[in-house]
Amino acid sequence: MKHSEVVQKFEGFLRSENLKLTPQRRRILDRVFATRDHFTADTLYGWLREEAGPKVSRATVYRTLDVLTRAGFVEGLDTGDGGLVYEHVLGQPHHDHLICLGCGRIEEFHSDAIEELQLKAAREKGFTLVSHLLRLSGYCGECQAKSPLNPRPARREAGADHLA
């Protein structure tokens, strides 16, 4: 999707919320779509402080990320450490995430087999699936190699078997 189309869609969403595309919101939108990396709100704020352009407050960054999330332009990913990392998703193919508990690295992946299993589980329970987020937590190869002790496999929720 072209950036001009992204801006038009964002302007349309803002109008539907009785909001305007301010220079600060436009700057945040542009910066978010200038990266393919995952980022925190504080990282985004730091980028904006270092770069030329209209001054943007930390509060405006947080509020605009909320608007972008509600509009479906970005998704926030809970990394399991109490924080959120964001990525722009408009026009991007669906993917899931592997998160290293050691270094925080995030790897994206897609599996048709996992997608089909999720759809099957939803159908069996009478659900119509409209979206999902899959986050797998563990240790990357580098962190495993650095650790004198092999990390134990993660456990499934309440009383489930160990992951294989």
What does this structure look like?
The protein has helices at residues 3-16, 23-33, 41-50, 58-70, 112-124, 141-146, and strands spanning 74-78, 84-88, 96-100, 106-109, 135-138. It has 164 residues and is an alpha+beta fold. It is globular and about 50 Å long. The relative contact order is 0.11.
Concise structural overview:
Helix content is 41%, strand content 14%. The chain has six helices and five strands.
Largest sheet: 3 strands, mixed
Q: Which quaternary structure do these chains form?
A: single chain
CATH superfamily of the largest domain: Winged helix-like DNA-binding domain superfamily/Winged helix DNA-binding domain
Task: State Rg.
Answer: 19 Å
Fraction of residues in helices?
40-55%
Average of the residue pLDDT scores: 88
CATH topology of the largest domain: Arc Repressor Mutant, subunit A
Strand order of the largest sheet: 4-3-5
- Continuous helix count: 6
Total domain units? 2
CATH class label of the largest domain: Mainly Alpha
Strand-residue fraction? 5-15%
List segments where confidence is low: pLDDT < 50 over at least 5 consecutive residues: 157-164
Quick one: how many beta strands? 5
